[in-house]
Amino acid sequence: MEPPVRELQLQTRADDDDHHGQNPNTDTSATPSSVTNRFSLPKLIHYKWWLRVMIYIVFIIAGQSAATLLGRLYYDKGGNTDNLMYSYGLLYLPVSTYSLLCATQLAFNALFSFFLNSQKFTPFILNSLVLLTTSASLLALNADSDEQDSSSSTKFSKRKYAIGFLTTLGASAAYALYLSLLQLSFQKILKAETFSSVLNMQIYPSFVATCGCIVGLFASGEWRGLGKEMNEYYQESKVSYVMTLVWTALTWQICSVGLLGLIFEVSSLFSNVISTLALPVIPILAVIFFHDKMNGLKVIAMVLAIWGFLSYIYQHYLDDLKHKAHKSESSEIISRRIVEVC
Predict the structure, then answer these.
(1) What is the distance between the alpha carbons of residues 257 and 122, in angstroms, rounded to a whole number?
(2) How many CA atoms are closer than 13 Å to the CA of 296, on its beta-carbon side?
(3) DSSP string of 123-191?
(4) Mean predicted lDDT score pLDDT of the chain
(5) For residue range 77-104, what is the model confidence (pLDDT) as tens digits?
(6) If you average pLDDT over residues 43-49, what whole number do you get?
(7) Which residue stretches does the UniProt record annotate as biased composition, category Polar residues (predicted)?
(8) What is the rounded CA–CA span in Å between residue 342 and residue 335?
């Protein structure tokens, strides 16, 4: 996770061009000031990059947490519609088994990032992946009581259990592959280092996905049940039903922008790490808004997640130090060239 160095390289080339084409009669008394301005520009770019990364992190954690809580509110009040592949997992598996399978998403992402995105794994990054996966697994073990798990596991046949297992595992692998392919698209196809490219990558696929969902909604006949769900099952008013769905969609879009932004600025693996970091935040918010119980496993999961996140950030700090050393060396080379020209 090194800040972009292209700006520094371009500035270096511009300096070379300026000095090779410099007029001998030009007053050189302003040279130190101009050199200072040129050297301060990469530093400004560096801080702007970190600011963008922090904004995207807030988008992911806030968006994912809010969307998950709104989804919880939707189901608590009587809603009964969900994502297809993950829905089969929720339908046919115990919650703890389902959550453990979802936690494999980070491992899948690490695998795909290694082969598709040339991701380098250091001890700190590996430590972060292990801690975050362990944190998610602890939350999974705490997700349901033994009574719920035993009733869920005996309710369905082995065939349905296998379907739930495979669809959940497939959904986790497919999403991890999607993140790695997004990074590959940014690197190899789009090659446009602008925020508009992030928005385009969000808007157009979302539009196509929305059209697909609408076609599926009407083709399956499920649209006939929406009015009944709103009028009979949902416990709150119609306005509350609509607003819950609208804000759930908006918060997921905010999360997706943060996800794409981190893929664009850093990597798909780091984006998935931040997404996993949000998992232990959600139970804390559920305690506040839904009066869930807080226990030792949730606290341990949160501590492990923060530890894993800090481990990943520390590796980025080391990369940043290496980048600064390289930039300092480049600055010294430029300074020597300026002295030679002057």
Answers:
(1) 27
(2) 0
(3) HHHHHHHHHHHHHHHHHHHTTS-HHHHHHHHHHS-HHHHHHHHHHHHHHHHHHHHHHHHHHHHIIIII-
(4) 75
(5) 777 667 666 666 666 766 556 666 777 7
(6) 71
(7) 22-34
(8) 10
Give the side-chain half-sphere CA count within 13 A for 184.
14
As a whole number of angstroms, the distance between CA 307 and CA 138 comes to 15
Query: Can you read off the two tokens belonging to residue 132?
Result: 């975050």
Contact indicator for 132, 309 with CB cutoff of 8 Å = yes
Query: In the numeric block, which tokens belong to residue 286?
Result: 């559920």
Show the tokens assigned to 237. 């008013």
- Residue 71 makes CB contacts below 8 A (sequence gap 6+) with 248
Structure tokens at 109: 């992402």
Cα dihedral angle (110, 111, 112, 118), rounded to 10 degrees? 80
* Six token digits for residue 170: 């497939």
Please, are residues 60 and 259 in contact by the beta-carbon 8 Å criterion?
yes
CA nearest to 130, candidates 340, 337, 269, 304 = 304
Sequence-distant (6+) residues with CB within 8 A of 45 are: 3, 4, 7, 8
Whose structure tokens read 């050297």?
39
